[in-house]
Design goal:
It is a single chain. This protein is of the alpha/beta class. It has a single domain, classed as Alpha/Beta hydrolase fold, catalytic domain (Rossmann fold), CATH 3.40.50. It contains ten helices and eight strands. Strands 1-2-4-3-5-6-7-8 form an eight-stranded mixed β-sheet, sandwiched between helices. The longest helix is centred in the last third of the chain and has 18 residues. It starts with 19 loop residues before the first helix and ends with a helix.
């Protein structure tokens, strides 16, 4: 049977086939109004504080990295409790549309990576828009990657096995940092883990144009995010903000891409993947049927757990040397 579609060629909200467990919890998923940012940030902090249970087998410490703008960049360093030799490192950038999020919002994910991959995870509390528009978030993330490489010995980490990763806007930052790290003076990266990544400020792909009513993330959210993040940008926007604008992706770190079916960001991820393949960059692409933006955060669902299992496997494989 053919699924009916709208005049734009995309299924309407009532016609999309969601994973049954995601469909069941969809009505319970909180919506953040980026137009009411102070309220959304408060709501997010309250949600993060509810029922938080630390994961056994992982410890963390908080620290700060000096930023190039004279700012201090808060970080949280996770590591498995068991004594191991020098560990690989994942520098992780949270999601939140460049406007929300912090060290409090993706703790469980970071703990899972540290425990199951057997790696150090350095989570970055980069500066947020609109108070700190581009390039503040990018420079904070790059500064932390450089600090991790310089501080590997004291971290008990292996400088030759550094990866970057991020979810949504954090995926944009990971991709931009990976592109920048092709410069000779910067750390070599072994992998970039891009989860439902934001990649293209033009928001002109088929999915970006037509997914106006999808759960969690919509076209209007996407446009408001870019408007806020790029508010003070003078001249042309470049890949440090919007990775898809890069002229050449050759020699970027091996990549794994995680894509939701019903997501405005879906098609820009596929376009970026095609460029990586054409440039012979090692690449794995993972799309999950019936999913929406950020679905892997809902680990009470089987498909959310499967996505996390796949991410763990991707990192384990990337760190084998």
């Amino acid at each position: 049977m053919t699924t009916p579609v709208s005049s734009s060629g995309q299924p309407t909200a009532n016609q999309r086939r969601l994973d049954p467990e995601l469909a069941a919890i969809n009505v319970l998923i909180p919506r953040f109004d980026l137009g009411r940012l102070a309220e959304s940030r408060q709501f997010e902090a309250e949600l993060a504080a509810q029922g938080r249970i630390l994961m056994p087998g992982v410890t963390h410490v908080d620290a700060a990295v000096p930023g190039r703008d004279g700012n201090a960049i808060p970080i949280r360093i996770y590591r498995p409790d068991e004594p191991l030799a020098r560990l690989p490192v994942l520098v992780y950038f949270h999601g939140g549309g460049f406007m929300l999020g912090g060290l409090h919002t993706e703790e469980e994910r970071c703990e899972l990576y540290a425990l199951r991959v057997k790696c150090v995870v350095v989570a970055v509390d980069y500066r947020l828009a609109p108070e700190h528009p581009f390039p503040a978030a990018f420079t904070d993330c790059l500064d932390v990657v450089m600090w991790v490489a310089a501080s590997a010995f004291s971290l008990g980490a292996d400088r030759s096995r550094i990866a970057v990763g991020g979810n949504s806007a954090g995926g944009a930052l990971a991709a931009s940092v990976a592109l920048e790290c092709r410069e000779e003076a910067l750390p070599d990266l072994v992998h970039q883990l891009l989860i439902n990544p934001v990649l293209d400020c033009r928001a002109s792909t088929g999915s970006a144009m037509t997914f106006t009513d999808t759960p969690v993330w919509t076209r209007s959210d996407n446009l408001l995010m870019w408007q806020s993040y790029l508010a003070e940008t003078s001249g042309e926007v470049d890949y440090r903000a919007s990775p898809s604008l890069v002229d050449d992706v050759r020699d970027v770190a091996p990549t794994s891409l995680w894509i939701a079916e019903h997501d405005p960001l879906r098609d820009e991820a596929y376009e970026y993947a095609a460029r990586l393949l054409a440039a012979d960059v090692p690449l794995a692409v993972n799309q999950y049927a019936g999913t929406f933006h950020g679905f892997d955060s809902y680990r009470m669902t089987r498909i959310g757990r499967r996505a996390m299992d796949d991410q763990v496997w991707a990192l384990q494989s990337a760190f084998v040397r």
